[in-house]
């Protein structure tokens, strides 16, 4: 396993909320934090079938594009009674407006009268270097 020891880290996201959260968590640990938006990186298509695969796609694409270590995440809500859905498709359930209240309303609708309403929020982080 490789340890990050550099002074600049790129957050492979355009999500302003995530950027703020990561900056708070990394405060005092990383000298300079940039976002994908700061350096005009495109958002790659998430074609993976797991959170880990999608986080790796984003981290590696960003690292190779900018030549710096990049941290990416993928996350979502996994509802047991829905077979783990929306899972990696949580953002898609929120639609192009990223309306997560609408996504949760859809989850509730699909659950119907299900007795088991248990769920877990899953988040995976991947740190990638330009050399892979």
Describe what this molecule looks like in 3D.
Helices cover 33% and strands 21% of the residues. The chain is of the alpha/beta class and 132 residues long. The protein has a single domain, classed as Alpha-Beta Complex (Maf protein). The model has no long low-confidence stretch (mean pLDDT 95). A four-stranded mixed sheet has the order 2-1-3-4.
Average predicted confidence as pLDDT: 95
- Beta-strand portion reads 15-25%
In whole angstroms, the N-to-C terminal distance is: 12 Å
- Proportion of residues in helical segments: 25-40%
Quick summary:
The chain has helices at 16-26, 51-66, 90-93, 100-111, and strands spanning 8-11, 32-35, 70-79, 119-128. It is α/β, with parallel strands linked by helices.
Main attributes?
alpha/beta, Maf protein, 4-stranded mixed β-sheet, 4 strands, 33% helix
SSE blueprint:
Elements: E1 8-11, H1 16-26, E2 32-35, H2 51-66, E3 70-79, H3 90-93, H4 100-111, E4 119-128
Parallel strand pairs: 1-2, 1-3
Antiparallel strand pairs: 3-4
């Amino acid at each position: 396993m490789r340890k990050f020891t550099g002074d600049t880290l790129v957050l492979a996201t355009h999500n302003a909320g995530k950027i703020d959260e990561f900056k708070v968590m990394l405060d005092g640990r990383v000298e300079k934090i940039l976002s994908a938006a700061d350096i005009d990186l495109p958002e790659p298509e998430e074609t993976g079938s797991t959170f880990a695969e999608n986080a790796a796609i984003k981290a590696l694409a960003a690292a190779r594009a900018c030549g710096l270590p990049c941290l990416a995440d993928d996350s979502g809500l996994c509802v047991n009674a829905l077979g783990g859905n929306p899972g990696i498709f949580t953002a898609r359930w929120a639609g192009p407006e990223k309306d997560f209240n609408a996504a949760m309303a859809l989850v509730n609708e699909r659950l119907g009268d299900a007795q088991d309403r248990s769920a877990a929020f899953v988040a995976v982080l991947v740190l990638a270097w330009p050399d892979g």
